[in-house]
Amino acid sequence: MIQRLFLIDSNEDALQLFGQNDRNLLMIEDAFDVRLAARGNQIVIMGDDIKEVETVHRLLKELSDIIEKGNYLTEGDLRYAIQIYQKEEDAKLSDLHDDIIQVTYRGKKIRPKTKGQKRYVDAIRKNDIVFGIGPAGTGKTYLAMVMAVNALLNRRVSRIILTRPAIEAGERLGFLPGDLQRKVDPYLRPLYDALYDILGSEKVQQYLDKDIIEVAPLAYMRGRTLDDCFVIMDEAQNTTPEQMKMFLTRLGYHSKAVVTGDITQIDLPRHKKSGLALVQNILKNISGIEFVYLTGQDVVRHRLVQEILNAYEEYEKRAKKSKQNGR
């Protein structure tokens, strides 16, 4: 039996590292072939495999460093850290926790929570047009909104424009009752929710009243030139190729665009192609445009969301294979 001792500087940090009723330590034990014994502000790592013991020691050291810097360790953070340390021998997570993108009006620090999210945020920093493609729960839209707010508050842009195709109404909004705002609100609600979380409802309303932030369906982008703006198009898998071209060619001087979508969730009629699916082949070699692909490993919602997505992915693979074999 191999034993390794890990020391924590403060009792307060030790309590957070251990988790309630040592829950965090139990999660680590379940993931690795080791036993952990908490004694005061120290942990004894015990196991028969020296590699496993050393891996857990490195994991605990990094988690402890993250906590020491004032970060709160969530169950999702721990679950992701475990996944990375299981797969990568040279795993390192400090870059994620050190990259604070924005602080919300409530004082919450927003940062990328996975390596995929970190690549996505860095791509937005470096490029004028970025496509964030991946399943639900990977933070595509939320992180784009955070980057837009950060650009606005730091005066790198003067406006934020948020849009998505109102596919549920076929974009025939004239058939709905009420003024434009009331018509489009149901389709754009997820964008408002993210803004409220970052800026607070009062500040968001001020920006909306002054047209500093504009939220509108994709159909209302036609014929415009968007200068000095941070533009986000959400649910882009539900654009046609013509709509995608129209949107991308609206971009003016000193502007940045982020396009998000999930090509496995296309709601267009079967005879119509998705603009997001097609654009990947058209624009993939243009400098200043980057495609970032997020996966189930980047899901930051409830742990079951990731497992549900993985289960559906496996089912779809089996169904596709069965269909091919049946030909």
Structural write-up:
Helix content is 46%, strand content 16%. It is α/β, with parallel strands linked by helices. It folds into two domains: 2-90, 2-Layer Sandwich (Ribosomal Protein S8, Chain: A, domain 1), CATH 3.30.1370.10; 102-317, 3-Layer(aba) Sandwich (Rossmann fold). A hairpin with a 2-residue loop joins strand 2 and strand 3. Helix 2 runs parallel beside helix 4 (75-87). Residues 168-173 have low confidence and may be disordered.
Annotate the secondary structure layout.
Blueprint: E1 2-7, H1 11-18, H2 23-31, E2 35-39, E3 42-47, H3 50-68, H4 75-87, H5 94-98, E4 102-103, E5 109-110, H6 115-126, E6 129-133, H7 140-153, E7 159-164, H8 180-199, H9 201-209, E8 213-217, E9 229-233, H10 241-248, E10 256-261, H11 275-283, E11 289-293, H12 303-325
Parallel strand pairs: 6-10, 6-11, 7-8, 7-9, 9-10
Antiparallel strand pairs: 1-3, 2-3, 4-5
Helix pairs in contact: 1-3, 2-4, 3-4, 6-7, 7-8, 8-9, 10-11
Annotated CATH architecture of the largest domain:
3-Layer(aba) Sandwich
Number of domains: 2
**DSSP strand tally:** 11
Structural class: alpha/beta
State the helicity in percent bands.
Answer: 40-55%
What is the residue-mean pLDDT, rounded to a whole number? 87
Order of strands side by side in the largest beta sheet? 8-7-9-10-6-11
Helical segment count: 12
- Uncertain ranges: 168-173
Broad shape? globular
CATH-wise, what's the superfamily of the largest domain? Answer: P-loop containing nucleotide triphosphate hydrolases
Beta-strand content bin:
15-25%
Radius of gyration: 23 Å
Q: Major beta sheet, specifics?
A: 6 strands, parallel
* Gap from first CA to last CA: 55 Å
Encode the helix/strand succession as letters.
Answer: EHHEEHHHEEHEHEHHEEHEHEH
What is the fold-level CATH name, i.e. the topology of the largest domain?
Rossmann fold
Please report the first level of CATH classification, the CATH class of the largest domain.
Alpha Beta
